[in-house]
């Protein structure tokens, strides 16, 4: 191992992860190129945008060692969004012989002897900006602002870091997700007008997911989307039913989505079981591969953990934002080989576990910023061929974000006449919830009672394409994709998905009747909705009477009566199932 200018071991390109295939003990091409640009320009401010897993920490610490060696700086302040990331930065800095104190508190006044600097949070700086300004002025300070988009999280946060770090000798800003949907300027970021007159953030160096995927620096991501029939009661007492992901109003989509995520329903257990099957397949090639469930709040996180224990026989690691031992639990999970970890959505950005390969997106958040952060937990490659699989509800916003994974976005200070993504209000609400750690507050206006949920496999999304023809839980159509090998590069993944798609289409054609049926009459969607609701009520009644779970009742009706899942069944098929239920109630089997 090579020695640094401080006499310590050199830092791998992907620290704290192991270097991706082919990078070994040298800097990655993007890191070398960005460093060359930095020292050619010698700027006071520099913004580097690099996809999660690309090695921003290594890049920044190589800058630090050079600036110290050249006598340009003699103190370092690292600002992060979470306490866990403070420790991660301190551990990384120690690898190159730089002592950073992650335990510094504002009340301490100064850091301990032997430390070159401190690691603090944005909230910590905002609460005592003048203290940090005095520390910055007292030495030639380099300030590293990790995930700088958090600098716009609140007016006090932005004002605080401006006040504290205006006198810094150098400022290095880093982010993997530079875009926001609000119009609060991010401190120390340059904005330039585009052709439409919109002021957008301007990075000094950018390394996107698409480039990193071609360089085998990050994993390809396969999204497994699940739909299903949902039923709930509104605050007005009206019972509603809808198929998750069908073209309905925004409010109905929100209700159906929350019904799916309800731990008491059948959608979540079915999707968790499918994700665990996928994890088992991945672990055949990657024995220590782990999974992460991102939950909406603490209550759901604990409930999902209980369900995973039933499925796997092993208690998952649960990470809650108010747990003082959260960082220790993350480190322990990262170093071990346990199958599953469950975290509330707010923790996702600080959960950096290289072995995470399977995820369940079990939260009702649909902002581009949060989605990118969540996906970033799974894309960190350790060796060529590792893949990521993320299970999510089949709702339009998430489908769009999954299909636009490689899209690079900048932060716009000026709001366009029409937001093309439709996420502006949702982003503002979600960021407020994340700051206040009240993850369920934003949806309180959608008060309702979840009554029933069933899951069905919808499709696979990969590299902008969609694969699969849908299918029941446990069907060959679902298992085709759950059983995809865990070690494939992006080209191999695309080829295999196309093959599985072709196989499914062939099976469907063989099952189809030989003669073309007559054109069906025009479907009355309102009548079908009423029939689905009536069937759901009858299924619930039979479930209560017999003790048979709702999903099993639906499966038995399909087995006896034939036809597709409820969401795809026609009037005759629904009527046949209701008649069969009536027979059961009067004792006729």
Write out key terms for the chains shown.
single chain, 589 residues, alpha/beta, nine-stranded mixed β-sheet, seven-stranded parallel β-sheet, 19 helices, disordered N terminus
Mean pLDDT: 81
**Portion in beta strands:** 15-25%
Query: What is the first-to-last residue Cα distance?
Result: 74 Å
Shape call: elongated
Largest sheet report = 9 strands, mixed
Q: What is the helix tally?
A: 19
Question: How many distinct beta strands?
Answer: 21
Derived structural class: alpha/beta
What is the share of helical residues? 40-55%
Spans of 5+ residues with little confidence (pLDDT < 50)? 1-9, 14-25, 409-446
What does the radius of gyration come to? 26 Å
Structure description:
This protein is 40% helix and 18% strand. Strands 10, 13, 14, 15, 16, 17, 19, 20 and 21 form a nine-stranded mixed β-sheet that branches. A seven-stranded parallel β-sheet has the order 3-4-2-5-6-1-9. Strands 12-11-18 form a three-stranded antiparallel β-sheet, sandwiched between helices.
Quick summary:
With 589 residues, this protein is α/β, with parallel strands linked by helices.
């Amino acid at each position: 191992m090579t020695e640094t200018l401080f006499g310590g071991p050199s830092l791998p390109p992907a620290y704290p992860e192991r270097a991706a295939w082919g990078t070994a003990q040298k800097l990655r091409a993007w890191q070398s190129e960005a460093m060359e640009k930095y020292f050619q320009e010698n700027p006071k401010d520099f913004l580097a945008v690099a996809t999660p897993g690309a090695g921003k920490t290594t890049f920044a610490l190589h800058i630090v060692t050079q600036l110290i060696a050249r006598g340009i700086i003699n103190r370092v302040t690292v600002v992060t969004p979470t306490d866990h990331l403070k420790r991660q930065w301190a551990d990384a800095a120690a690898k190159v012989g730089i002592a950073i104190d992650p335990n510094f508190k504002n009340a301490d006044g100064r850091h301990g002897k032997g430390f070159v600097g401190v690691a603090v949070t944005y909230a910590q700086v905002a609460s005592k900006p003048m203290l940090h300004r005095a520390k910055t002025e007292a030495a030639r300070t380099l300030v590293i602002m990790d995930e700088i988009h958090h600098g716009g999280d609140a007016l006090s946060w932005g004002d605080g870091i401006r006040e504290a770090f205006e006198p810094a000798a150098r400022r290095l800003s880093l982010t993997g997700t530079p875009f926001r949907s609000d119009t609060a300027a991010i401190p120390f970021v340059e904005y330039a007008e585009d052709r439409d007159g919109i002021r957008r953030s301007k990075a000094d160096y950018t390394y996107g997911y698409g480039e990193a995927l071609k360089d085998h620096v990050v994993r390809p991501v396969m999204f497994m989307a699940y739909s299903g029939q949902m039923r709930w009661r509104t605050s007005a007492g009206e019972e509603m039913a809808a198929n998750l992901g069908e073209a309905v109003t925004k409010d109905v989509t929100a209700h159906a989505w929350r019904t799916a995520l309800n731990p008491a329903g059948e959608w979540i257990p079915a999707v968790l079981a499918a994700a665990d099957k996928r994890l088992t397949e991945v672990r055949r090639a990657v024995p220590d591969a782990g999974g992460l469930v991102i939950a909406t709040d603490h209550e759901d996180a604990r409930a999902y953990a209980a369900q995973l224990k039933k499925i796997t026989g092993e208690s998952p690691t649960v990470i809650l934002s108010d747990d003082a031992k959260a960082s220790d639990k993350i480190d322990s999970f990262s170093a071990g080989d346990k199958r599953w970890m469950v975290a509330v959505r707010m923790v996702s950005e600080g959960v950096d576990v290289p072995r995470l390969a399977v995820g369940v997106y079990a939260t009702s958040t649909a902002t581009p910023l949060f989605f990118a952060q969540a996906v970033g937990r799974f894309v960190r490659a350790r060796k060529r061929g590792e893949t990521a699989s993320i299970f999510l509800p089949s709702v339009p916003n998430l489908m769009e974000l999954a299909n636009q994974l490689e899209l690079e976005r900048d932060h716009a200070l000026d709001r366009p006449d029409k937001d093309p993504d439709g996420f502006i209000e949702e982003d503002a609400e979600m960021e407020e919830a994340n700051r206040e750690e009240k993850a369920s507050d934003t949806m309180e206006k959608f008060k309702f009672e979840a009554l029933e949920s069933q899951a069905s496999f919808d499709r696979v999304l990969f590299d902008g394409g969609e694969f699969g023809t849908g299918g029941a839980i446990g069907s060959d159509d679902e298992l085709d994709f759950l059983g995809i090998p865990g070690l494939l590069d992006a080209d191999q993944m695309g080829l295999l998905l196309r093959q599985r798609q072709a196989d499914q289409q062939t099976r469907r054609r063989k099952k189809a009747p030989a003669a073309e049926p007559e054109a069906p009459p025009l479907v009355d969607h309102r009548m079908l909705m009423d029939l689905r609701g009536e069937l759901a009520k009858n299924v619930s009644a039979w479930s209560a009477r017999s003790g048979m779970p709702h999903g099993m009742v639906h499966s038995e009706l399909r087995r006896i009566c034939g036809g597709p899942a409820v969401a795809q069944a026609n009037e005759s098929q629904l009527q046949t199932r209701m008649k069969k239920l009536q027979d059961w109630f009067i004792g006729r089997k």
